[in-house]
Amino acid sequence: MNPLTITASHAPGGLVLEAVGDLDHTNAQRLRHAAQEAELPPGGLLVVDLSRLEFCDSSGITALIAVRNRAEAAGGALVLVVVSAALRRLLNLTGLDQVLDVRDAVPLLTDH
């Protein structure tokens, strides 16, 4: 098991959270907490960069949904970027690819 690290970086119009390692039942709450602590500007974009995520279980998926809900409650939006093929398949099988905005690259944070 690889530990999860989450790095936040602010940008005009939004925030990027980079998740590195394993997102699972032992640490999914950390991603939720990072999103709660983030000061997302009204109408801002919360980008979760998953390019270095190595594993995600159902608790991780639940955390991603909670992060999306948090962003929308703040008047913003969530974008998941650089999602692995395995996670994309899981999102597709569960129908969450219709709910979560998944992109191949980090969008410009000044326009979404």
Automatic annotation (TrEMBL):
Pfam families: STAS
CDD domains named among the record's database cross-references: STAS_anti-anti-sigma_factors (cd07043)
Domain (STAS): residue spans on this chain: 4-112
Gene3D superfamilies documented for this protein: STAS domain (3.30.750.24)
Family: Belongs to the anti-sigma-factor antagonist family.
UniProt-recorded name of the protein: Anti-sigma factor antagonist
